[in-house]
Amino acid sequence: MGKIIHHDSTDSDSLTEAEVLARRQLMSCVYYVQTHDCPTYTLAASPTQVGVREGRRIIGDYILTEEDITRGRKFKDAVAVGTSQIDFHDLDRLGVVGRREKVPPYHIPYRSLLVKGVNNMLTAGKCISGDQVAQSSYRMIPTCAATGQAAGTAAAICVEQNIGLRKIDTALLKATLEKNGIEFDNLVPFYQKGGSDLM
Prior knowledge:
This protein has 5 helices and 4 strands. It has a two-stranded antiparallel sheet with strand order 1-4. Strands 2-3 form a two-stranded antiparallel sheet. By secondary structure, it is mainly alpha-helical.
């Protein structure tokens, strides 16, 4: 129910102000619930810190785009698959949902984990290389975990072979990920598995 806009998660003063505003919103929500139909309800717990929807993203060797995810694009160097809907919140107005749109399963390429112009650095999770709309889908925890597994596996292979991250055989990386349970093809989107499409 709460949403904080126009704050910077990479700036400590801005993040502190967001924390204060989030707690005020939380208490407003509690007050509303208690004065409308549920007078005995109390707040049992709240998170220790505000949830950050997005912060910094790298510019990688490949930038995953809105078009990539809406078309269900496949990549030869795929290391993870996204299946979550676009969940792009309005950036300027409180109380406005924004854009929600189902997408077909799409690949996340290894190149989106590599930081452009930097040797031997991999990223995973919400900060990989993608545009803002694409990030609203791949920021979901299952996809973040998959990119984390991919980054760790790539690093292990490179250490074993004593090579740099850009020298890895991406076919070997993909085969290793598949051997460890990652599926790349014939995937059913989350919303078709009987779960909620609002993650």
